[in-house]
Amino acid sequence: MDGIVLINKPKGITSYDVIRVAKKIFKTSKIGHTGTLDPFAEGLVILCIGKATKLVNRLIDANKTYEGVILFNNHYDTYDITGEIIKSDEKEVTLEQLKLVSNDFLGSYLQTPPIYSAIKKDGKKLYEYARKNIDIKIEPRLVHIYSLDILNKLNDNEFSFKTSVSKGTYIRSLAVDIASKLNTFGALKALKRTKIDNYLLSDAVDLENLSINDIKSIEDIFKDLDSIVLNDYMINLVKNGIYLDERQMITNNDFKVYNENKELVAIYEVVSENKYRPFILL
Fold it and tell me: What is the pTM of this model?
């Protein structure tokens, strides 16, 4: 049982709750996720199962797309409306102002993660310090905003948006930073993840309907890759982790290795020019 599954996480549960459900259905403990979603958020979660757990780091590093709602005038300790209000004002924000300011965030900028996050500092997660009311310096991180579109005004000082971002970007922090640029306070009211890499929420299964049939096999995941067929002697070497070179393949991309029975044996990745190593062995 090796592959990935796209799940539509509902609001109110953690990403680890999703994994617990999946472990029972798939009867395996070898499951990794590719980026957490806060309990108040919903949307795409990708689980990697069995030998496909090799994909976890790649998908964690991938760009992600979100849709959400930002609410102005209140600053919450969690940077979303599930927390406690710390500061408030009555500044009015217009759709035109918001669209203009949003352009300032396109590209790279230094973003400070929220204290209520799972980032570790000195061996502890930041939210552990927050829950004990311990002040701690949080180092800003360079993130990249590829697109940020303000969509509609929903209510007074409440707006919908869509954004595509690099790994490590906190949309909660983005909401707070946008508000700060407008000289007011802001927080996320809603958040939905709609895309991870090239995988779409529209292709995901609702958690309550999850079944073994929803697993996308490794062969299906990599169906568009080039491939080579090797003889039994070379296949035995492949299974032992041998590197391949220009004698077998010349490419700048991952490729599949089949045996003479047309069975997928491995996915190889590029190490350097004309040098390749096994990424996934089946």
Answer: 0.91
